[in-house]
């Protein structure tokens, strides 16, 4: 059984400006499954709907974002939850931090700048579990940060006394304090230099390998997915267009958009000029008809302009949404 099943999810931003209603279809008919003990990567360029998708998956939907249809079903073993229907108080008490935690882009959003790191740990543990024994809490927290390779002294520092990389590692330590079943990491290495980035990714990988939980890693950086993810879903204009094990995505992509992303990656020793895609990602308030990639796709055929390609399975773990693939004329 999957830990998470997302079924035909649609989540739109609905706004009204000067009496004119507008819907931005940020997530439009997305289905995916996450299993225990895997790192699943979501890739795609900016504004493709990645962050909106994880807002729904993590239960942090706020207006003007609205869930239009679909289900987000979790099976935590002892209990099941549909994130599209859960009561906010139940979500806070039983799911957030304990079963699902969220490492946000930019660690300062979780660390209180005027409180020492240990106080932030204390706030979270007190809110979600209580602290009947302060000495035990301090010992447990110290053990936890040391197990993750952090010096225990960080607990007595303020966020501004830490480097960006160390702050992000502290954010990961906070997110894993209750050993959650799912860790959602949204661009966790953005704005870090490559050496620090490597350390943060290594930490995430080690935590996942040691505790066997699931990590949903969202980043536009394909090199990060290549290093860390077991499976990757490629998003374009609010939809997943291809999903496969990481090695298949990088060695045998089938969707023209995925093929373009892989071709444009810099390779050691490759001096060829990289070609960019013509055009820009579509406006999701008024997306193109048919395949949303058709205005930029060099292989588009007539059918692509009118008919939305269905997602088809090419193998057990490889699925793709492209008319050329289904017609066998790639
Ligand atoms: Fe290109 Fe058509 Fe495939 Fe879309 S369905 S990716 S437009 S070939």
Largest sheet: 8 strands, mixed
Q: Strand fraction band?
A: 15-25%
Which outline best applies?
Answer: globular
Could you give the distance between the termini?
34 Å
| Number of strand segments | 12
- CA-based gyration radius: 21 Å
Helicity, as a percent range: 25-40%
Order of helices and strands: EEEHEEHEHHHEHEHEEHHHEEH
Listed once per kind, the bound small molecules are: iron/sulfur cluster
Strand order of the largest sheet: 6-7-8-3-9-10-12-11
Flag low-confidence runs.
Answer: none
The number of helical segments is 11
Q: Which structural class matches the secondary elements?
A: alpha/beta
Mean pLDDT score: 91
Question: What would you say this structure looks like, in words?
Answer:
The protein is an alpha/beta fold and 330 residues long. Helices cover 31% and strands 24% of the residues. The chain contains 11 helices and 12 strands. The strands form 2 sheets. Strands 6-7-8-3-9-10-12-11 form an 8-stranded mixed beta sheet, with helices on both faces. It has a 4-stranded antiparallel beta sheet with strand order 2-1-4-5. A hairpin with a 2-residue loop joins strand 1 and strand 2. Helix 5 packs parallel to helix 6. The longest helix is centred in the middle third of the chain and has 18 residues. 38% of the residues are buried. The model has no long low-confidence stretch (mean pLDDT 91). Iron/sulfur cluster binds next to helix 11.
In short:
This protein is an alpha/beta fold.
Fill in the keyword field for this structure.
single chain; 330 residues; alpha/beta; four-stranded antiparallel β-sheet; 12 strands; globular; binds iron/sulfur cluster
């Amino acid at each position: 059984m999957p830990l998470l099943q997302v079924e035909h999810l649609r989540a739109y931003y609905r706004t009204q400006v000067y009496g004119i209603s507008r819907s931005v279809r940020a997530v439009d008919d997305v289905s995916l499954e996450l299993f225990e003990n895997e790192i699943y990567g979501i890739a795609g360029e900016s504004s493709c709907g990645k962050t909106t998708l994880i807002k729904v998956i993590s239960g942090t939907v706020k207006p003007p974002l609205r869930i239009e249809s679909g289900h987000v079903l979790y099976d935590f073993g002892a209990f099941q939850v549909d994130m599209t229907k859960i009561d906010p108080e139940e979500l806070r008490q039983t799911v957030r931090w304990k079963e699902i935690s969220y490492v946000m882009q930019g660690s300062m959003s979780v660390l209180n700048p005027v409180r020492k790191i240990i106080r932030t740990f204390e706030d979270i543990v007190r809110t979600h579990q209580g602290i009947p024994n302060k000495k035990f809490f301090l010992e447990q927290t110290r053990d936890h940060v040391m197990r993750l390779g952090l010096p225990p002294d960080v607990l007595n520092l303020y966020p501004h006394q830490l480097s960006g990389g160390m702050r992000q590692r502290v954010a990961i330590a906070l997110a894993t304090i209750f050993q959650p079943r799912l860790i959602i990491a949204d661009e966790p290495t953005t704005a870090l230099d490559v050496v620090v980035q490597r350390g943060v990714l290594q930490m995430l990988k080690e935590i996942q390998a040691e505790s066997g939980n699931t990590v949903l890693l969202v980043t536009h950086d394909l090199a990060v997915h290549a290093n860390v993810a077991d499976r990757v879903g490629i998003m374009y204009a609010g939809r997943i267009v291809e999903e496969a094990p990481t090695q298949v995505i990088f060695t045998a992509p089938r969707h023209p958009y995925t093929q373009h992303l892989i071709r444009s990656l810099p390779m050691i020793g490759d001096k060829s000029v990289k070609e960019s895609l013509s055009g820009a990602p579509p406006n999701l308030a008024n997306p193109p008809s048919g395949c949303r990639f058709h205005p930029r796709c060099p292989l588009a055929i007539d059918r692509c302009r009118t008919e939305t390609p269905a997602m088809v399975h090419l193998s057990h773990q490889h699925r793709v949404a492209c008319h050329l693939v289904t017609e066998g004329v790639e």
